[in-house]
Amino acid sequence: MADELIESILNESRSFPPSKEFSDQANINEAKAEEMRKLAADDHIKYWAKLANEELHWSRPFSNTLDDSKAPNYEWFNDGEINASYNSLDVNVSKNPHKTAIIFEKEDGKSESITYKELLLKTSQFANGLKKIGVEPMDRVVIYMPMCPEAVIAMQACARIGAIHSVVFGGFSSNALKDRIEDAQSKIVITADGAFRGGGVIPLKQATDEAVSQSSFKVNNVVVFKRTGENVNFNKGTDIWWEDLVADCDLVCEPKPLNAEHPLFILYTSGSTGKPKGIQHATAGYILHAKTTFSWIFDIKNDDVFWCTADVGWITGHTYVAYGPLLSGATILIYEGAPTYPDVGRFWSICEKHSVTIFYTAPTAIRALMKHGDEIPANYDLSKLRLLGTVGEPINPEAWIWYHKVIGGEHCPIVDTWWQTETGGAMISPLPGITNTKPGSCTTAIPGIDIDIVNESGEPVDEPNQGGYLVIKKPWPSMLRTIWGDNQRYIDTYWEKFDGKYYVAGDSAYRDEDDCHWIMGRIDDVLNVSGHRLGTMEVESALVANEKVAEAAVVGRPHEVKGESIFAFVVTKGNRPTGNDAKTTQEELREWVASQVGSIAKPDEIRFSDNLPKTRSGKIMRRLLRAIARQEEITQDISTLEDESIVKQLQGEE
Ligand code: WT7
Q: Is 60 exceeded by the pLDDT of residue 1?
């Protein structure tokens, strides 16, 4: 696309109103949005109560909408009973049993579909299998699976019987898996022999074996789904093949009525310490938000084919793959493999093949595919697409405009959805039938969500274009309930800053004259690498766990495709490696971090120095390191450094 065109669009700071054609058919039109906003403004509690009654099927109705007696441990609908799997599957089977629930596109190009009825039967049968091996309500079940329908079935089966699933992304290493098994105290792990990815196989079972054998918490059973058919080690006594487990199980499993506050899942995410946090979500509030935002933001209709490219190992894959779409009776597509396999046209070829109408992905994927030029998508028929979405990080306007023109053919609204693992579902996003979008802005909060931008003392920043802390002012149903096993950390991380008054998201943001919000970045030591959250401390603790490393400091640096890349400054024990020695040590440490955390945590660059720059009180001067990594001019006072010459080493000049 011509640079002048981008330039002209950016200079005009143009906004993009939805077409009349789209608006006329939208689930949320101007009048509806107005009505919702008014109700929410008049009575926030009534607003959520009304939605919870209209949208969900309760086995026992609730009368308490919000219980704030233990704030900030808010509870929602806590005298009601409900089941998430019943709301996802049984409800839709009774409406249209033969509707396709999941289209599964395998990496080798074969595909298959599963109807709602089949999904219910498979889920029920597997739920009975879990019961057979002793899984009870409140038990934690770790799921470490490839992207395939069985991953969703495993999640839904847990929800059906009241077990708490904790999905671990298949790209995480055995060590990261072990940490999560231990923290969640999960006596069951569900995995597969392997996962197809990029033409190769990821040995999930081998990683599971390592994790289980090293875990200080005893795992009783490992359920293994056969996906690749490769030979894997099989431990008699603990291991059970998925197919053997379900072979004699009934196809009917009554969904267990559970308290609305019953934990639905734990999902680990990175924070500002070395230890990931187990974000705990509750059943009713979470599914309410998943269902409603899915319908409002993605404007879902009966014949849509919705494709969210996120893995179920992330919150996006929970809310907009495994729950939101199924709660709405939608047809989703699940793709097993790499976006560039066998070539960089794969995403677009899948859109064409399965007539995808709504496509939701991360800016990093858009930027990566944009690099290959407009000719690639031009080879495919993308005319069925009617709505596009992005999530996970700010999208740069250039990528937005490319997405709009080249993928959306200028007729698809783009929903840039801001949210977090903690918020459970999208919070700030255009409503595609009514919002004038602006490239790079996630626009305004959805009805019922009350956000603000506040300064250091917690006062609203009313002036436009002034940055501050992004906060959420009222509790909402799909908010995290706590951090698994560490409620104090929950309070400290999200509520302490403004004395429990606001939920602090950890992002800075500003609002412009048109009430559009622009996310500026994290305010804590958290990086966003390819739309994935990573703590700098997490990478640092992985590095210092290596026998060669004495000290490490990790900072982020802007990256054209990944958004941010990881830059590590390392002090080794003994002499500072130089020349070839430095090269091999760098490679060794990169692989080491991959083995400790996962490939996504591999530092892009590692630089060795004799010391790290510290203040007199011994604090690492991170701002200085950030400036060095970004090759910015150094404005920090370095006269306090014991040895100023290390700055040259850090700059890579020696
Ligand atoms: C952090 C949450 C929400 C699912 C994926 C990431 C950043 C998320 C956007 C957006 C700008 C965004 C924020 C947020 N983020 N969406 N549309 N525009 N930034 O979930 O791993 O919990 O990370 O991702 O910094 O705090 P997560």
A: no
